Amino acid sequence: MGPKAPVCGVCGEPSKYRCSVCPVRYCSVACYKTHKESCVATSEAGPAPSLEPPSDDHPAPAEPDVTELEKPTETAEPAELRPITSLKWPPEPDPMIFSDPLRRDDPKPLRPVELERIATSQPLRDLLAEEKLTRTLAALDALPSKARHDALARLLGVDSESLARPAAAATLDRGSPPPLGDLLSAAANPPERREEWGADGWWLGQSPNRVWIGEEEKQLVKLWAGMVVREIDGDSDGAWGSGNLEWEV
């Protein structure tokens, strides 16, 4: 019977390698890592002499790249959430603008309580995890006011004139301009496509915020707009309510 094959000092499997600083043998990188944690040999002692000369069956092992094995894995730090109290809220608007019948159809500024509902909305936060939506909103925000107005109307599927004019209170039961009502019918009655828009979409914005707008981006923006309206109204059942949204861009 020939000599017994050396075995791994960690798992007991046949081994071809030996620790460079102690006599313990190992069979794989995983076993080497496990042994290295408990190896009590000191670096000053130097590598232990090999008791077995290298042979064709048992060649001298190449030492693992310890530097590579010990390289720490870089993990991204999670972004720290800012407390609501640290946000810069606009001043409370004059309550008279909401009760004045002569200003019923005028766009009205958002109140802090409405802004807080937007900031703390979990559905909106989940939706904003969509990279295509955040890139589209960033490109939209970088546009000048007039261009942003036209681009938003185009994204929502309404004409820019209806986006700006006040809504009839008898129709929407609120003093807000479209697209609050238009959003409901935009999917069923899309506007006529212009030839210069292209068959599949168009480019929005300029570099480095330039983004291609396709059907998915338009649907995400419509969904985002509807969620914002719902959070402003404080109405979870999807009704438009009477939040008097100032839909200005």
Automatic annotation (TrEMBL):
It comes from Cutaneotrichosporon spelunceum. Keywords: Metal-binding, Zinc, Zinc-finger. GO terms for molecular function: zinc ion binding. The keyword Acetylation does not apply. InterPro entries: Znf_HIT. Residues 43-105, 168-191 are annotated as: Disordered. Residues 8-39 form the HIT-type domain. It comes from the Eukaryota. This is HIT-type domain-containing protein.
